[in-house]
Structures are given as C-alpha cells and as structure tokens.
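Bench notes, afternoon.
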Amino acid sequence: MTLWRDLWEAPHRPLFFLAGVSAITAPVVWLIPENIGPERTVWHGHELLFGMGGAAAGGYLLTALPAWTKRGPVSPVLSKVITFLWLVARLTAWWTDGLPLSIRMVGAAGYFAGLVLILAVALTSARAWNRFWSVGGAMALGGAATLSSANSSAIQIAGQNATPLVFVVLVILVGGRAVPAFTRRWLDRIGVQAVPRDRAWLSNAAIGLVIAAVCLGVSEYKLASGVLLLVSAALLLVRMSAWQSWETIRYPALLMFHVAWTWTPTGLLLTGLALTDPHQVPLAAALHALTMGAMGSMIVAVMMRAAMIRDGSRLAVSPPMAAAFVLVSLSAVVRISAGWLPAMLLHAISLAAACWIIGWTLFLWGLLPSMRGPVRRPVLSAALSTVALHLNGFFFNFCG
C-alpha cells in the first residue's frame, strides 16, 4: 500500500515508468503473429510516438508545471486521472478493428486533451503566459494522435511521418534551455571560462523552419521540406558549437545531454537528405534517427535524472543507467545503418531491437528505487533538496 500511495505523489513517477514500459513493448509487436492485434507497422510507430513519447512528455511537463506556476505540485488525483487516460489510449490503439472510429479518436486524444486542460488551467491561473508553448505542444500531439486513428492508412502514415518533427520541436525547446544552462553551471564549477554568448535565437529559427516543414506536409513537398530541415540542422549545430561539449566528459550525467542533443541535428540532417535525395538516404532510416535517436536518447537522459543519486551538487550515473543510455543510442545507430545494408536488414533490425529493449529494461531497473518514498524537489535538478528554494531560478530555466 505504501508503494501504491507513493506512486501518485508526483506525475513523473507513473508516467516515466509507463514510458519505459511502452518503449520496451513497441518492438515486441514484431514477435507477435500478424493475425493477432493491429497492423504491426502502424502500431509500432504509433506506440513509439504516442505511448513512449506521450508519457515522457506528459511526465516532464507536469513535473515542470509547479516551477512555472510557483504553486504546489500536481495532486495525486490528477496523477491518477492522467495515467488512466494514457492507459485508455493504449487500449484503443490496440483494438482498432473492434471499435468505432469515434471511440478510437476520443481514446487517442483523451490523454493529450487532459494534459492540455491541466496545463492551461494552471498556467492561466498563474498568468505564466510565456509557458503556453507547452499547451501548444500538447495540442499538436493530441491532433496528431487523433489523425493516427483515422481509417485511412495514408493519413496514418503521413501523420506518423510528421509527428517526429513535432517531438523534435519539444526536444529543441527543452534541450535548448537545459543543456546550455547545466553546461554553464558546470563550467563555472570547474573554473573553465564559458563562451560569453549562447545564441538561443538559432534554436528559435530552427524551430520555425521545422514547423514550416510540417506545415508543408513533409512528404507532399519533399524538396522544400528537405531544404528547410537541412538548414534547421545547420543552425542547431552552429549553436551547439559554442557549448564546449568536450568539457562534459568529466560529468557523465551532463555528457549524456550533449550526446542526446547531437541526435537532433543529426536526425534533421538525415531527414532533410532523405527528402531531397531519397536514393542516397532511406526515409525509414532518417525517421528512426528522429524517433530512436533524438527522441529516445533525450527522453531517457531527462527521465534518468529523476532516479539519479545526488553527489554533492552533481548527479551520479549508476552503471545500469550508463549502460541503458549507451544501448538506446547504439540501437538507433544500428537501426539507421540497416537502411544502407539491405542484405543484413533483418539481422540489423533484430540487433537494434535487442539493444533497445535491454537498454530500456535497465532504465526501468534503475528507476524503480525512485518510485517510492518522499519525492525530492526539484525532481530533475542536481540541487540538494535542502537548498532547493535557493535554486528555483535555475530550475525554472531548466524546465523552461
């Protein structure tokens, strides 16, 4: 009973755990006979995006919400409600053939609608208008989830091709604040002079280009969308060049953030090349760079922080967590390589799936101890709980 009560004390506890479970089950569908359950390709992509990605996004946004509003944490009741809506969405996604279209659409959108409502009410009450990008992001994901439940396979595939770019925007928003903020603090601590200017406008420009590519329909205007994504990748790389990433090798928890961020311009670059020259870069490989690479690595890097042990003002990375991050990133590399190795396609996909499943299993193993007991606050910061109030400003930047 104590574990059950502790589980709902913070929304990241059930949602981060379910994100890990969903990440493990998404590849398992390939082991199930084709006549059982939904169409495997569509379901696999759907659960990777809206199951794993949706739970991780919700857990992060609701964890950041108290810092944005300067109010108390999300209540256990709301944690239970949003978790229930996520579970309903998973059930409706599985039993697509046995449910009317209206029920499938409501089930798919219900979780994100609940997330939008919680965020909008809290942010409006606190007049935190500068955080309303989170509401827009949740609405965009809810719209994409609704389209994914359509009867038309063409609409489903088009939606799944565009949805990774919506997540990329969220990754840029979150990572573009967290990575440089933590890096500057680390450089100050070790006595290294940080580059005085972090050109955040480069990320804003990249976000605009990615949104423009989504609005063009990605696959409908391949050349134009591809060029936009190539330019956005270049902008992110230019911004990252000022972050002195090589200095983070002495701080593994921060190094993981830098590696995860690198996947975002890499995925955008490959997707841009796939759209402009599909004969050289397979689109499937590029999309996996965005989902398994950019999404998967950033999600696991962020969620791990909720379970890491504080070592002074640092976060210590346990061996299971380190192995989990390496395996998740390695699985993306192997899966992307499969696009250029048709003769080894099945073996590469199997190896990538094995690395992915083992990596996320290790993540869950490392996460379990943090699921019970008092919730440390701030959740995702290395700050000690006894001085948390003095570091709220820094936490706002991280969550911002």
